[in-house]
TrEMBL record:
This is Endonuclease/exonuclease/phosphatase domain-containing protein. The lineage of its organism: Eukaryota, Metazoa, Ecdysozoa, Tardigrada, Eutardigrada. GO terms for molecular function: catalytic activity. Pfam families: Exo_endo_phos. InterPro entries: Endo/exonu/phosph_ase_sf, Endo/exonuclease/phosphatase. Residues 19-94 form the Endonuclease/exonuclease/phosphatase domain.
């Protein structure tokens, strides 16, 4: 089987969105609708106020999106806080923990979206 080669061409434009959701649990349906209406490929959410008991499906539909999150417990905050990245399943992603800092609300991922021929 031949090895795929990168063509150097960009397939289609990608949509990246950002929102301060001020609590994902009470706005779950609204946030999911906003992501789909905007045809978002990558979404950064801050102030999620999520806790470990908050389910992933509160953020996105797992059939279409991958989720990386840092809940407020991980941020060492008692109120507010929490960040998440929601990325379409078609992308390859890898969390870059080597860039994250304990105690800060910082979440890094590498997103790979190459068009191959």
């Amino acid at each position: 089987m031949p090895v795929p080669q990168f063509t150097g061409e960009v397939g289609k434009k990608r949509a990246i969105r950002y929102a301060n959701v001020n609590g994902i649990r009470s706005k779950s349906d609204e946030v999911k609708r906003w992501m789909e209406d905007g045809k978002a490929d990558v979404v950064a959410l801050v102030e999620t106020m999520a806790e470990p008991s908050t389910t992933d499906c509160s953020f996105c539909d797992p059939a279409f999106y991958k989720l990386k999150r840092l809940d407020r417990d991980g941020c060492q905050k008692s109120t507010g806080g929490g960040v998440a990245l929601v990325i379409r399943k078609e992308f390859q992603i890898r969390r870059m923990v080597e860039y994250e800092v304990v105690g800060l609300e910082v979440l890094w991922v590498k997103v790979i979206a190459l068009r191959m021929n």
